[in-house]
Amino acid sequence: MNVILSQEKYLDQFLNNDKQINAIRISLLTWFQDNGRHSIPWKLTAEGTVPTPNECLPVYPIWVAEVMLQQTQLKVALPYWERWMLAFPSIDDLVVADESETLLVWQGLGYYSRVRRLHTSSKMLFSMIGPSRSTDSSRWPDDLNTWTSLPGIGRSTAGSIISSAFNLPTAILDANVKRILVRLIGTSIPPERNSARLWDCAVALLDPHRPRDFNQALMDLGSTVCTNHKPICIQCPLKDYCVAYSLNEPTKFPAKLSVFSVSKFVIGIGLILNESNEVLIDKRLDHVKMGGMWEFPGGKQEKGEAIETTISRELLEELGVVVNVEKQLIAFEHLYSHQKLNFIVHLCSLVSGVPKPLSSQEVRWVKIQELSKYPFPKANLRIIAALKTYLLL
Q1: Cis amide linkage into residue 377, ω under 30° from 0
Q2: How far, in Å, CA of 126 to CA of 100, rounded?
Q3: Class of domain 2-252
């Protein structure tokens, strides 16, 4: 308790030390000038130049990017953003798109609830902006309350959108920024339990004159220097003000909550082919994880169950059909956030019954060459590739 009280006292002193806060701003922005990432496409003007402080940027590309960057690194999100902007270059295009189209373009990026919320939010924003005005930044909302009222937009995402597009002083607190602030002030409280105080710190540090650059500088510093496992403290512009650096223990911060265990499951998948070499797929229910995506039927193996039995049982429960489980096509592991799934995929032939969507939205026979038109979870793409190889397509 005394340690926490002393940390609180230090934080109060830190937040009231205007001279030090100003020095931190100057040090970070100076570092950013020479070391920041200045070529991020949605942070540039239409002419490809860095915006002036008084210049607004198009909001739509920034909003799409910020949603993609939730739980995803920049280098991973960038090619998906480029693909998205080709498919839906404006909110006008997104509003009229079918959900399945958006899922297909998003395919492979994961966390599919993000794209569904993005699609829903587009209709809400479009009603505010009005038709044919989507490229006019002044028509877009520039306040936290409006942005955080949209599905999937929290305070940090909203702050990044507003500061990036309008250069307005709205703070951010993503994972990179949390790590920097925790090390800077040396708090032993895990970030998940200290959100309010970290927000106090983020707001106090934000440069009111250059919020766009300052927020990007924080994100760049966290991505390249103040990294999670191997921080390069000697290159950090904030080391002279950093408690973790002074203790020579940067990797002890931030403190971790209890470690999540990874659940392991075996998933049996049955590929039913008909005489026309069409394969059966089904569409996941909207309310479940990866809702609206298509997949090959199957499910979890029960304890002591042979994989062939798993597949037969799952296809009977899901589709109401009896199948012969034949040769194995492929087996592989796929890691989700807290699950490791071992997929075992077998070819199957239909014995009796007409496939029905007993636990899905829809079932459909699809030619192998046309599977690319349907949005699948990433793991299913390996199954498609193996099936094409097997059929020599």
Answers
A1: no
A2: 20
A3: mainly alpha
Kindly state the DSSP code that residue 273 receives in the 8-state scheme.
Answer: B
- 101-125: buried (b, 16+ CB within 10 Å) or exposed (e) per residue? bbbbbbbebbbbebbbbbbebbeeb
Residue 362 to residue 219: CA distance in whole angstroms: 42
Contacts of 170 (CB under 8 A, 6+ apart): 144, 158, 159, 160, 162, 163, 206, 211
CA distance 200 to 155: 13
pLDDT tens across the length of the chain (393 residues): 344 446 777 788 888 899 999 999 999 999 999 999 999 999 999 899 999 999 999 999 999 999 999 989 999 999 999 999 999 999 999 999 999 999 999 998 888 889 999 999 999 999 988 765 566 788 899 999 999 999 999 999 999 999 999 999 999 999 999 999 999 988 877 777 778 889 999 999 999 999 999 999 999 999 999 999 899 999 999 999 999 999 888 888 777 766 667 789 999 999 999 999 899 999 999 888 888 999 999 999 999 999 999 999 999 999 999 999 999 999 999 988 778 999 999 999 999 999 999 999 999 999 999 999 999 998 999 999 999 999 886
Residue 390: name the closest of 334, 332, 346, 342 by CA.
Answer: 346
Residue entry with tokens 């002083």? 169
DSSP-derived pairing of the beta strands 339-352 and 263-272:
parallel
CA–CA dist 85, 102 (Å, integer):
11
Q: Are 375 and 104 in contact (CB under 8 A)?
A: yes
Cα gap 303→313, rounded to integer Å: 13
Assigned token pair, 29: 């922005």
Domain covering 263-390 in this structure, CATH number: 3.90.79.10
Nearest to 312 by CA among 259, 301, 304: 301
Q: Is 148 helix (H, G, I), strand (E, B) or coil?
A: helix
- Domain segments of the chain: what residues? 2-252, 263-390
> Which residues are identified as catalytic?
66
How far apart CA 192 and CA 257 sit, in angstroms, is 8
Answer yes or no: are the C-beta atoms of 293 and 377 closer than 8 Å. Answer: yes
Q: Which amino acid is at 63?
A: W
Distances (CA, A) of 126 to 85, 129, 156, 265: 17, 5, 22, 42
- Looking at the whole model, is its pTM more than 0.85? no
Which residue shows structure tokens 């049982």?
Answer: 313
